[in-house]
Structures are given as C-alpha cells and as structure tokens.
Amino acid sequence: MTSTNFAQAQQRLAARRQAREADNAARLTTQRESSRARSQIDRFPFPFSRLGTAWDAASSQEGTRPAFRVGQVDAELLDDELLELLRGQVGDALKYFVGGHLKDDWSAEILLALRAVLFKLTVWDNDATYGAALQNLKYTDARRDGSVLVPPSKWQKSLYGLATVFGRYGWDKWENHLLENDDGYSDPSPRLRRLSSITSRLTTMHAGAAFVSFLVFLLQGRYRTLLDRVLRMRLAPPTSQVSREVSFEYLNRQLVWHAFTEFLLFVLPLIGINRWRRWISRTWRKTKQIMTTSDDQEKSANGELSFLPERTCAICYQDQNALATTETEIMAAASSGGGVIGSAQTDITNPYETIPCGCIYCFVCLATRLEREEGEGWTCLRCGELVKECKPWSGDVLEPPKKSPTAKVVAFTEDAKADEGDVEYDNGDDEDDVNDGEFVSVPQDEQSATDSTDTEDSEGFEETMDNEED
C-alpha cells in the first residue's frame, strides 16, 4: 500500500468517526428536546435545575465505556481474601510470642501494616491491586476524556491510600475506644453518648451512600466504590485490544482432582491396599533372604532376631532398635552398651507362644502383629515360620493328656456265665459289640484304679524305651 492510499484510508476512518459522533449528539439532543419533564425541571432555581443534567448523566450510558462489572467486583473480593489470608498467616506466626495474645492486642496495627504494604506494592507502584491485575484492570483518571487512558495522579493515589489505610485504622481505633469506655454496667457520660450517637449516624450515612453508589455502578459500571467515585478513579482494561476471556482451566483441574480423590477413597477399601502392600513386602523380604543366603549355608529356619535371649521380646526389641537392621550392628551396639542385648523395657510381659513354632512374645505385641496381618499370617522374628495363631505360654510345664469329653466307659462279656473278673472295657462306639454281649456297668472305684494302672504301665513303658535308646 502506498502512502497516498494510506492517507485516504485514514481520512475515511476519521470521517466515519465524526459522522458517528454527530449522530450520537443529534440523538441526545432529540431526546432532551422531546422530554417535557426536562423542560419543566430546567425552569426551577439553580440547585434544582441541575437535577435534569444529573439524571441524564446517571441514566445515559453513552461515552462511559464501562468495563465488565463482574470483573471489578471480583477484583474487590480477591483483594479482601488476600488480606484475610495474610492476616491469618501473620496471626499463626505470632501466636507463640507473649503467650499468644500479641495478635489479639495488636490486631489493628497488624492490619495497618498489611494494608500499607499492599498499597505500596500495588496501587502506588502499578496502579492496580492484585485482584484488579488478575482481572486485567488498572486504575485510570476518569477526569480525562479521550481514547487514551491516563493513570491517576499522585495526589489521587495519596488520598486513596490515606483513606483505605489510615482512614480505616483510625475508624477502627475510634470504635474500639468507644466500646472500651462503655462497659455496659454503668451509665455512660453525656459526652460519650453524644459521640456514640454521632458515630452511629455517620456509619449509617456512609452505608446508605455506599449502597446508592453501588446501584449507580450497576447501572453505569464506572465507579466501583464510593471512594472511587469521590476521587474520580475507575477501573478499566489497560488496552482495548485485549478481549475478556474467562479461563476455566484451574476450575476444571480442581474438579478432576476432587472427583479422582473421591474415587480413590471409595475404591481403596474395596481393593485392600494394605493386604497387597504386606504381600509385596513379604515377597520382597523372602526374595532378599534367598539372594543373600549362600548355597553352603544351613537350610534350617532362622529368623532375623533369632540370636536374642529368650527373656527378650523380639517385637519390642525391633520397635526400639529400628536403626540396627543386621545382626552385626546389633551385636556391636550390645558390646558398646556392656554386652547385654535388650533391657528391662524389652523383657516379655504376659508371655504368649506362637503356633506352631512356639516362640514366646508379649501378648500385646503378638496380638497386634497378627491383627495387622488380617489372617494372612505373620513371619516369626525368631524362627521365620508363618504364624497365624497364638496361645498362653504354659511355662514349660508338662500338660496331662486330655481325655475325650464325650467318651463313655462301658464293659461287655462274651459269655453270661463268665466270672465277674473277666471284664472288658470299650468305648461303646461299635454297635456290633453291643449286640454280641451283655452290658455290664463298672463301678467308679474300679474305673479309677484301672486308669491309674494304665498310667503307671505307660510310664514304665516310656522308661524302658529310654533305657533301650541309651
């Protein structure tokens, strides 16, 4: 494109812009002339004659170029959330000083410092708060009209910081002062009542003015707060070439992770991850033992803590000496401590023995390990056997042979004419024996004598077998 064509294109654009502005001005003029109420209002004295102009400025949206209202409101909410987040972090950091009352006694000063730092780093340096920067907005001077946005002047930003930082701090301190003087038990002084009444009225007036300003903001979209309206500072995009795009990437990622977490919380108990973890760890331990065991080593069962004395609970010792994993390290630690392995804290309490290996442990330790395995068995630390049950330790006492609780002692005779001394004993399980002979009851004294005789015969037989083996 030549320079002549470019100049002609610029002239055509300028002509179109002027025609558009002329049409807008003509339409506004027509609307004003057609309004009878406006003509009647203009006849009023000076203070009331400006009501028509004010109404036109409030109701008309021509030339306002408002930014998205939801973006401006979100920016304010983000700024408040950031301040509360920093306040909570500072409170957690100061709760260990001066008995934890520092954050309560100096809460107003903490807020003053946080607001001052945020104002310096945001509005004063970059003409935008953190929330406004996230929404692609910046403060501009609304007194300057034109297509080029002008940043606010220093006195505007100074007044903004004075009102938002020191103004809020002074108002909070003033309200706290009134509350401290009014204890609620005695009648306050007339001066205090008058000051409290004035403060309440000012608060009500400010709330009403802020509400009206917010309604106008919803209508025009220019000034978000009452302070912005007074100082003529408005939020606007830094350039008109950037379109507003709402990214839901973060929200989608949070939703996906939340759904995935709930799915895992539902599925993991059904899968039994602890059971698989124990199976994998047990398999890895056995594989490691097989790899470290040489071919010429004895193939007998041997646990990792088989060298411990019998009075020491292997589970208690393993829990208290988790760092020492090999026998060499444990023996070295024992030699440095006087040559004694274990201590009074690792002695067995309430001994229980495992089934089938018979190793002795504390009841609590053994029951905890067996319950943790959920019936799959636990590897004994002394012998390496798989243990699924336990029983109280008998203390190396020989238990008498148990008799069948359902056994019934009966006797039969093959011939009814046989002597009373020729008596046979039977358990009565075979029905043929009952049909062959007659039933003869045996007295209890004879039965006890017979049992004692059988016991003596069995003991004598065992002694004879031992002598033959020797």
From TrEMBL:
User: What Pfam families does this protein's entry cite?
Assistant: Pex2_Pex12
**What are the Pex N-terminal domain coordinates in residue numbering?**
79-281
Q: Where in the cell is it found?
A: Peroxisome membrane
The UniProt entry's GO biological process terms, in alphabetical order, are:
protein import into peroxisome matrix, receptor recycling; protein ubiquitination
Q: Which GO terms describe its molecular function?
A: transferase activity; zinc ion binding
Question: Sorted alphabetically, which keywords does the UniProt record give?
Answer: Membrane, Metal-binding, Peroxisome, Protein transport, Transferase, Transmembrane, Transmembrane helix, Transport, Ubl conjugation pathway, Zinc, Zinc-finger
Q: Which residues cross the membrane?
A: 202-223, 255-276
Q: Which domain of life is it from?
A: Eukaryota
Q: Where is this region: Disordered?
A: 14-39, 412-470
Q: What is its main location?
A: membrane
Q: Got a GO cellular component term for this one?
A: peroxisomal membrane
Q: Where is the composition biased (Acidic residues)?
A: 421-436, 453-470
Topological relation to the membrane, as annotated:
Multi-pass membrane protein
- Which InterPro entries does the record cross-reference, listed alphabetically? PEX2/10, Pex_N
Listed PANTHER family = PEROXISOME ASSEMBLY PROTEIN 10, PEROXISOME BIOGENESIS FACTOR 2
Q: Which family does it belong to?
A: Belongs to the pex2/pex10/pex12 family.
Spell out the protein name for this chain: Peroxisomal biogenesis factor 2
Gene of origin?
Answer: PEX2
